[in-house]
Structure formats: structure tokens, C-alpha cells
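pinned: reference chain
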Amino acid sequence: MDQQRNDRLEAMIASIQQRWGAAALQPLSRLAVRTALPGLLTGFEILDAVLGTQGIPRGQTTEVVGKMTSGATTLVYNVVAAAQQQKQYGIYVDLEATYNPVYATMCGIDNKLLFLARPDTEIAALDIARDLIQQGSVGVIVLDLGETQPNLRDIRRLATQLSRFGCAILLLKLAGDGVNTQTILGNSSAALRLLVQRDEWILKRDDISSYRTLNKRARRKGLEREGKLAKVEVTNKQPSEK
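pinned: its C-alpha cells
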């Protein structure tokens, strides 16, 4: 009798996983192993200290918001490079065709270890990312959304289905001129939200050599202190830096 109940339970679990994805229902012991995975460092020591030892969390979504020349894209590129240093691939979903391979290389990205997706629709982009991530060798997915608002249900579904692979998901939102970044921050269920603002330009011999940015941790699940700031200096490697 017990065996029959176990068989029915296993059949029901298999049916649920087939319909909703393997990560939708799984043993708690497996979840405990996943949460122990180390995060990805940003490459900025001060910011990494603010984020803690976990850095950018794996298996969860991080929201990065900023304006052009704020340093938000540099931050995202650095995280992709950090994943590649651990021999993992990255996926860059480029809905607005703004990915800069030259500057990305300067930030440490190996374009040979990066899949660039430029589909016609956001849904197609997420489907591509989902298929690739299930191979288990992808460390980070970047959704470069520009000013577009994503379908939060699709984002949550992707995060739920793919979290068991230990992949970090970055939502990059670049606001245009005249747009208050605070108004587009917090529109998702991200585990970590970072607001990146340029603080000042740094001149060297009358040329802009770098700039200082303010990185505000707007939210992080499991941490009591919110709104902590980190000042970092970003080298002006190329005029087209975003």
C-alpha cells in the first residue's frame, strides 16, 4: 500500500515538473545546496564589500538601473567577465542592439564565451536563454532592456526554472534623459537592486580619465541595512562607455 502511494506521488511530481519545470518542485535538500553557491564579484572592491561575501547572487535576479554614462553597463560587463573567469558561459540578451563588443573586451569579457541574442521579441529571447541555460555551463544571463518594461511574469518564471543551475540573472535598465531612475527601480521581484549614478568626472591633463559613481544597494533580501552607498571609480576606457 505504501509503495502504491509512493508511486502515485512520484508520478504526480513528474507531471508537475514536466508542466512547470524541474525547479518548480524539488527536495528541500537540493535547495539548501544551491543557496550555498558563491556569488559573482563586480570587480569593484568597495562595492563588493557593501554587497558582502556573496556579491551578485546566483540563482536569483539582480536589477541594475542607471542612465547612460552612469557606469551601469560597466558593472554588468564586469560581472559577466567574473563568470567567465570561472569557466562559465554568459548569455547577453540585447533587445536594443546596444552591446559593445570592443568595450566589453576592455572590461575583461571573452566574446568567444558569450552568446549574444538579438531576437525580435522578448519572449523569444527568454526562450533562447532558457534553452541555453539548461546545459548547465552558463553562469550569468544579462537582459539588456533599455527603457522597455519586461513581462515580470516571464522574468519570474525564468528565474524559478533556471535557479537550480546556479545562474545569476542581471536586468540592465538604462534610463534616457529626463527620466528619473527612481521611477523605474523596484518594478520586479529582484533579490538585489542596484541604482548606479554618476557622481563626478575626474580630469587628467584636461581630459576625462575616469569618473566616480555612486552605487546604491536599494534592496537585498535577507539583509537588514538598505540603501547603503558605495563610491567607485570607473576608468574612462572608451568614449562610447555607457
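why pinned: The chain has two domains: 1-36, 40-235. The first helix runs from residue 2 to 20.
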